[in-house]
């Protein structure tokens, strides 16, 4: 397995999640089924876009049409709609602040995803992580801050735990799924870490006194994570323990160490720009610069 990863990781796949979705659908659905799936997907995607644009009438119209088509779909089409298209609908309910329905949709997606994982679609672990992260967003919007933070931390812990036990030997679209998984793993680590920290700092002016305690809740379960097995595969993974160390020093109030580690991270030519921007925001908001 390690040899396969090392052989292929040199070529980074820009959007591995979408690559997997497209390749999977082209494999499991015939031409007619794929066409019908795309009709449903287009409706739900349009609902998502309309919700973002606050066009409630269009969003509802597209939701109703997508649901109408879904009721007539074959079981095979319905299965893949339930994991790849329904996230649009969870977002729709989130956007109109119907948090109960948003949670229900995300939990239903997680349920269907777990079933497919057990039948060999191991990569769908990331679909499940997306929805756990989405539950974190919903709880944040609903004012359940501590619950949200714990869900984001759980996502990081789950990604890390999964990184040690991938078993898939599947190849899809001429790419080993393990290679897609390792590319996605790196991106998801960054997404979850940076989104949570950005959410916390965005509340700085309203909740300045709580910022450090929220960070402590988030980083406490992450402090013991060991990334050596990932660094051995790709040295860029060293950015994660280094990133965690930066914020551990901030939480502890060790200004000198926080500044030194922050500068080292910001100066590293290979470390991720989004992670660097987060550190920069904390340096700015807390007047270190």
For the structure shown, list the relevant keywords.
289 residues; mainly alpha; Serine Threonine Protein Phosphatase 5, Tetratricopeptide repeat; two-stranded antiparallel sheet; 15 helices; 2 strands; 75% helix; globular
Mind explaining what this structure looks like?
- This protein is mainly alpha-helical and 289 residues long.
- It has one domain (2-225): Serine Threonine Protein Phosphatase 5, Tetratricopeptide repeat.
- It is 75% helix and 1% strand.
- The protein has a two-stranded antiparallel sheet.
- Helix 3 runs parallel beside helix 6 (86-95).
- The longest helix has 26 residues, at 177-202.
SSE layout and pairing:
Elements: H1 2-8, H2 16-28, H3 31-52, H4 56-71, H5 75-84, H6 86-95, H7 99-118, H8 125-141, H9 145-162, E1 171-172, E2 175-176, H10 177-202, H11 208-219, H12 228-233, H13 239-252, H14 255-267, H15 273-285
Antiparallel strand pairs: 1-2
Mean pLDDT across all amino acids: 93
Number of helices: 15
Low-confidence runs of at least 5 consecutive residues: none
Using only C-alpha atoms, the radius of gyration works out to 20 Å
Q: What shape does the CA trace take? A: globular
Major sheet summary line: 2 strands, antiparallel
Q: What is the strand content?
A: under 5%
Which CATH class applies here?
Mainly Alpha
Overall structural domain count? 1
Briefly note the CATH topology name. Answer: Serine Threonine Protein Phosphatase 5, Tetratricopeptide repeat
Helix content: over 70%
CATH architecture: Alpha Horseshoe
Structural class: mainly alpha
Total strands: the figure is 2
What order do the helices and strands follow?
Answer: HHHHHHHHHEEHHHHHH
Note the gap between the termini.
45 Å
**Strand order, largest beta sheet:** 1-2
């Amino acid at each position: 397995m390690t040899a396969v990863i090392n052989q292929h990781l040199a070529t980074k796949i820009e959007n591995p999640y979408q690559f997997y979705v497209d390749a999977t659908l082209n494999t499991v659905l015939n031409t007619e089924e794929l066409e019908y799936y795309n009709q449903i997907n287009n409706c739900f995607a349009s609902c998502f876009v309309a919700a973002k644009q606050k066009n409630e009438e269009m969003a509802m119209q597209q939701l109703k049409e997508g649901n109408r088509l879904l009721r007539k779909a074959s079981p095979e089409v319905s299965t893949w709609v339930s994991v790849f298209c329904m996230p649009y609908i969870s977002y729709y309910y989130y956007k109109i602040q119907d948090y109960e329905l948003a949670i229900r949709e995300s939990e239903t997606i997680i349920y269907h995803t777990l079933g497919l994982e057990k039948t060999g679609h191991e990569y769908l672990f990331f679909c499940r992580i997306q929805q756990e992260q989405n539950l974190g967003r919903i709880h944040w919007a609903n004012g359940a801050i501590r619950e949200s933070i714990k869900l984001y931390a759980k996502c990081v812990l789950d990604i890390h735990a999964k990184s040690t036990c991938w078993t898939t030997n599947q190849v899809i679209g001429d790419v080993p799924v393990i290679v897609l998984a390792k590319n996605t793993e790196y991106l998801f680590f960054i997404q979850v870490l940076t989104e949570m920290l950005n959410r916390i700092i965005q509340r700085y002016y309203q909740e300045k006194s709580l910022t450090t305690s929220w960070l402590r809740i988030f980083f406490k379960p992450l402090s013991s994570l060991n990334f050596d097995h990932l660094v051995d595969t790709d040295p860029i993974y060293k950015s994660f323990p280094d990133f965690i160390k930066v914020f551990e020093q901030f939480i502890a109030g060790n200004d000198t160490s926080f500044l030194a580690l922050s500068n080292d991270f910001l100066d590293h030519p290979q470390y991720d720009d989004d992670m660097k921007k987060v550190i920069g925001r904390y340096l700015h908001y807390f007047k270190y610069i």
